[in-house]
Amino acid sequence: MTPRAFLEKLLRDTATVVLPLNLRRWIRQQQRLHKLQSVPVGSVDFGGLRRVSPISAVFGQDRDLLTIERYYIEDFLARHASDIKGRALEMGDPAYTRKFGGDRVMREDVLSYVDGNPLATIVADLTDAPHIPDNSFDCIIITQTLQMIFEVDKAIATLHRILKPGGVVLCTSHGMTRVARREGIDDWGEYWHFTTQSKRRLFRAAFPLENVEVTSVGNVFSCICNLHGLGASEIAPEELSMHDPNFEMLVLVRAVKGS
Question: What is the Cα–Cα distance from 231 to 229, expressed in whole angstroms?
């Protein structure tokens, strides 16, 4: 964020807190009347983003770069790498278990929703998985999965049940992003895009309130770039690191099972 943009945001945020609503409305009216907007109407240069189809239609995978979503996911897991230990469960493949758990992981398990995944050690539907024993895992990594499950509350209840006391679930899900579907290829859908408020209520229904941490990542620019499928390295680090709570690209949860 440039110094000017930072100052403008600081002034807007301060005015929102300090000034009465009627006065804020009057100021906005004067801005419109006298064309005092920070970016005057009609002067926006959209450049290469002025298009109605994305730059990459496959989430940036064709650009051979770490995507913006994966950048945020890996940053989240790196910050909580110490939680990835003991017996760990991951969805689909053990890539993040191995990358962030290392030799702290004593046993790695992989859950698949359908048969045929050679990496899977467990085949189960998280909404109804009585064959997975209670209190089994020290850590569960579930990235970009909950939005594919319609009965999401049941899935979260299962995550809580199969965690050991003191175990941790690290969960990331879509917020403000494109729908993850590949027409005619995948037999699943995408049912939900979450907010921090919805994730907080869902996880606190299963986990102790004080054991649930819910955060978000993203800002208006990183969301736009992500919608176009750009790679994380194509925008500046400071543009990635600025988080605006009004633009929740991904919603991140760290929840601990009570002991």
Answer: 7
